[in-house]
Amino acid sequence: MHGSTELLAYARSRIERLSPTAAHAELSRDPRALLIDVRTASHRATGGHVPGAHCIDLTVLPWRLDPEFGWRIPEATSFDQRYILMCRHGFSTSLAAWQLGLMGLNNVADIDGGFEAWCAAGLPVDRSPTFMADVRE
């Protein structure tokens, strides 16, 4: 394997990827499924926030979702917890989903095209300043 393109292809061959509309449908019907937004605070400030998403910085994602780690989010209670990851374009979350799978979190998917594709599909986005209150970094 050589370079980032090959690494990305390798990771994507081992994870579940969802279209934005499929992710939205699953999140709407399954209250246990969690949308995890790993975009930076500045990207959320300029682009907006998906209502209900948990904002977790990519650098701490494995620790926040590990049900055995002391600094996990309250919802991370099981290795079977459903997580749907979203970044800006769908590159970072492909690698993150693969990494989480290596940790034993096997119910993880990422959104093909990320936040940009979510917006292009016309799915809900909160562009008000109050969304920053939910940031967990």
TrEMBL record:
Pfam families: Rhodanese (PF00581). GO terms for molecular function: thiosulfate-cyanide sulfurtransferase activity. Residues 29-127 form the Rhodanese domain. The keyword NADP does not apply. The keyword Cell membrane does not apply. SUPFAM superfamilies: Rhodanese/Cell cycle control phosphatase. SMART domains: RHOD. InterPro entries: Rhodanese-like_dom, Rhodanese-like_dom_sf. Its EC number is 2.8.1.1. Keywords: Transferase. PANTHER family: THIOSULFATE SULFURTRANSFERASE RDL2, MITOCHONDRIAL-RELATED, THIOSULFATE SULFURTRANSFERASE_RHODANESE-LIKE DOMAIN-CONTAINING PROTEIN 3. This is Thiosulfate sulfurtransferase GlpE. It comes from Corynebacterium massiliense DSM 45435.
